[in-house]
Amino acid sequence: MRDLSNHEKNEVGKLTKQIEKQNNDFNNILKDKERLETEVAQLQEQTIDLQEQVCDIIIIIVLAKLVSVVQYNNKI
User: Fold this and answer.
1) CA geometry: angle at 17 spanning 27 and 26, to 5°?
2) Side-chain-facing half-sphere of 7: CA atoms under 13 Å
3) pTM, 2 dp
4) Distance (Å, rounded) from C-alpha 64 to C-alpha 76?
5) What is the CA radius of gyration of the chain?
6) Residues 37-75: pLDDT tens digits?
7) What pLDDT, on the 0 to 100 scale, is given for residue 1?
8) What's the rounded Cα separation, in Å, for the pair 71 and 20?
């Protein structure tokens, strides 16, 4: 009977350690998930900013090209 009780205690101890490790792993994964979600949000904002900058540059290039065409046509 004692052997069974000791064996059960050992098994409970092992299982408790496994559960604690899995809980720690889970908590670490949750922290990583939150950190990565924040990083993704920041990168999305940066992407939007860069897209706006690219659009602005394209507009400037097109306007500069139009100005040069108008100036060329005025010389003719």
Assistant:
1) 15
2) 4
3) 0.66
4) 19
5) 33
6) 999 999 999 999 999 999 999 999 999 999 999 999 888
7) 59
8) 76
